[in-house]
Amino acid sequence: MNQKRIYSRRATLSLKMSEFEVPPMQDLLVIGRRAPIGPEAVRRMAEALSPEQFTIMMIDHPKVEAVLIRNSLLQMLDKDVLINIVLEEADRLISDTMVIRSELKIEVMVQREVELS
Fold this sequence. Notes:
It comes from Paenibacillus hodogayensis. This is DUF2294 domain-containing protein. The chain is of the alpha+beta class and 117 residues long. It has one domain (10-110). The protein is built from 3 helices and 5 strands. The protein has a 5-stranded antiparallel β-sheet. It starts with a strand and ends with a strand.
């Protein structure tokens, strides 16, 4: 019995961004190059509030120095794809002195078809 399988995977991303506030933790923070709080302080704050739940990633970008992101999101989607989307959207909002927090929802849709004989 020879079955033909068609398999597709898609991901829909929805980002909600706002200026940094207290409490600061959501799904990610985009840290400007001249922001009043730097990547190391953000990393320490995240570790104090939610141990081992976040990763800080240094970024090569004119306005953004780093992105703090929830580890569970990095398990769902490729890091480079995710960071590129975040930077593309944040670039329109951020100045190099800002810290932007963002809620990020990833919804994965899977559709499969099999040929019946």
